Amino acid sequence: MKTLVIAEKPDMGRTIAAVIEPRAKNNRSYLEGEHYIITWAIGHLLGLAEPDAYDTKYKRWNIADLPIIPDQFKIVPNPRTKDQLKMIGELAKRASSIVNACDAGREGQYIFALIQQQLKLRQPVKRLWISDLTAESIKRGFDGLKDASEFENLTHAARARSEADWLIGMNASRAFTTRHNALLSVGRVQTPVLALIYDREMEIEAFQSQTFYEVAAWFRQEGVEYRGLRQGDKLTDAAAAEAIASSVKGKTGHITKYEAKQTKEYPYRLYDLTLLQREANAKYGYGAKKTLDIAQALYEKHKVISYPRTNSNYVTEQNIEGMHKTLNLLKNGPYSELAIGAKPELVHKNNKGVCNPSKVEDHHAILPTLKRPGTLSKDEQNIYDLIVRRFLSHFYPPAEYKQHTVLTEVEQHQFKTSVKELLSLGWKVVLPSTDQEQNGSGKKKTKKNNNEEEESEEWTDKSFSVQPELPVQCSKSEFKEKATQPPKSYTEGTLLKAMESAGKQIENEELRDAMKDSGLGTPATRAATIERLKNVGYITMQGKKMQLTLKGRTAIELIRRAGVDLLTSPEMTGQWERRLYQISKGEAGQDKFMENVKKFTMSIIDKVRVQAPAPADAFGEDSRGGRGKGKGAKSSKSGTKTTARTVASAPKSSRQSSGSVSRSSNTATSMVKTASASSANAGVREPLASCPSPGCTGQIIEGKKGYGCTRFKEGCGFVIWKEYVGKKITSTMLKSLIEKGSTQVLSFKRKDGSTVKARIILQDQSSGKLSAERQE
């Protein structure tokens, strides 16, 4: 018998087949060769069942029925991809062994584990664990397949993550929604991330700007001119600042201190996913999800970068040879000049800025591969360019500077000058010309000190020096009014940085590295979390800035007032993520973690149950069927994205919560997205019937223009519009259509004024398409 290889996606399966079975027969959903059958999942083929799979009473949202804590979690097939799941089962019957070739990470492990569970696969399993999809890596991976037992702990962590998210998401969302009569989505990761945004906005609103005055003076000595800023107590009186500026102008002073020391600036760390997303946001304005999608395409489709969903900025000794080969590859093509000028001897196993095996967990940093890119889109080229230039920078020496610090005293006033003199660009030659420092132009940079005053730093490629023993002449002076600035609103880039360190404001990179395994979410899921906050109407984007909606603000305030601060605690949730990491390494138990999650779930329900309901206008009009007229009403665009399915779901991995909706379900998506503004009573919409679409476990709810399925995001395209050939479809008619397949006999008017008797028939249970059947 043959070996069945299960990849995560079709492109990956075909790429693997081209290496291990180049003569394989290409079937629609699998390839078969002499020794291997290669097939694939399509992301998540299975997911955790909805609450009503455990008891039909859960179809209605009722706080009295909470908490919902299954003894055993059920899994259900995704109706959109159930045929592929069935195909995998049929192919497995012809195989004596199986290779798990899903993505080499926690979620890839989970995808395979659910397939194995659902199909009851009993064959021995090997694990393909590779970091890129080049032919060389695939061949090497199959030559060294690992035993599946090595990854049992990773599977335990993946299950714990999914089930914990389900417990918190399902229970907390239902509790807060039913208690406060508004669709509120609550999640183990998304809620503390929302709390980060909320806290920053509160800081901004509470900030009171203070006016102060800065005095600057220009000094000359032996043909050298430099600028200094007055040191000392903050000046809050304009007259005093003006008096100081006037008193030093034209006067002679002396240098009280002069230091000049050489410094080196080494290349920035290689990219992990979060760092790549942050820089792409800062440079190109790309959202985190967009950068992830582009990087995934560069990995899966073009095969020009290594596995992107990594949290490491380093490589192992085994990667060094490959990096040298990639450098040689780059000597032909658009990066030839930079690659030829590189110094291969700088990248070696003892260079801890590159090679640090202790900081490589599942995957090394993102690297370009030994495959030349073909035609890339502009966005793909931008991300590839970032990765290649960061890679090349490590083959160059450090940039070298001479840091000059001068303290000048005139008329008993001290002025400080900082000058950074360029000695050698070093690795910075790999930066695009627009990013290289314009040395020699007298460019000034400023940084804030603890008193909110600015320290000026000048950059120059010209020689700079002063003679402390000689006097200086103050040639010019001025004073300027300044104001202390509030904290900045989060961008996706700065929020990713905060998520990585569980909200701690840590600038030291080594300390930030230490926090990586206790951050909010993982590199693979952070983008999906941000997208979710947008989709449920908690935040909107104004350019790059994130803005909290009234609904988002009220949600955090209600959660905190309920006494379940843990739900909003970035540090505590970060510790949960750390515990999941420990489970994946066999250092902690899944059962103990889940027991704690269940206890916390029950405490949430107990506290929300006794909370006073929110006022009717607390969320803005989009969450209250148009009743809210308060602040935040203008956020309607984001608010309409809240759906019953959105609230009912726990946060998913990026593959689930950020997947695109199929074209066949666009009509259902359009209908359900506006449903939150449709009910006169607002709040929770009662399910009217079970969705008749084959294999779908969703519920039919009423929207503004029609009746649609709550599982539209999973691909269900069922929708019945409220008007059909002039007849209004009532909820009674809807139930009759779904339960009996037709309405009662109705009278229809013809254009000539005559009438005809007919029934409305549910022609297609998958789409909700109707037809009329004439009755004699």
Report on the structure:
This protein has 776 residues and is an alpha+beta fold. The protein is 34% helix and 20% strand. The strands form 7 sheets. It has a 7-stranded mixed sheet, with helices on both faces. It is globular. The chain starts with a strand and ends with a strand. Mean pLDDT is 86; it is low at 438-442, 446-454 and 624-684. Residues 434-468, 615-686 are annotated as: Disordered.
Helix and strand arrangement:
Blueprint: E1 2-7, H1 10-20, E2 25-26, E3 30-32, E4 36-40, E5 46-48, E6 75-77, H2 82-92, E7 95-101, H3 106-119, E8 125-127, H4 135-143, E9 146-147, H5 152-180, H6 190-206, E10 211-221, E11 224-230, H7 238-248, E12 252-265, H8 273-284, H9 288-300, H10 317-329, H11 336-340, H12 378-393, E13 399-410, E14 413-424, E15 444-448, E16 454-460, E17 471-483, H13 492-500, H14 509-515, H15 526-535, E18 539-542, E19 545-548, H16 550-561, H17 570-584, H18 590-609, H19 636-639, H20 644-648, H21 654-657, H22 666-673, E20 689-690, E21 699-702, E22 706-709, E23 719-721, E24 723-724, E25 727-728, H23 731-740, E26 746-749, E27 755-762, E28 770-774
Parallel strand pairs: 1-4, 1-7, 7-8, 14-16
Antiparallel strand pairs: 2-3, 3-4, 5-6, 8-9, 10-11, 10-17, 11-14, 12-13, 12-17, 13-14, 15-16, 18-19, 20-21, 21-22, 22-23, 24-25, 26-27, 27-28
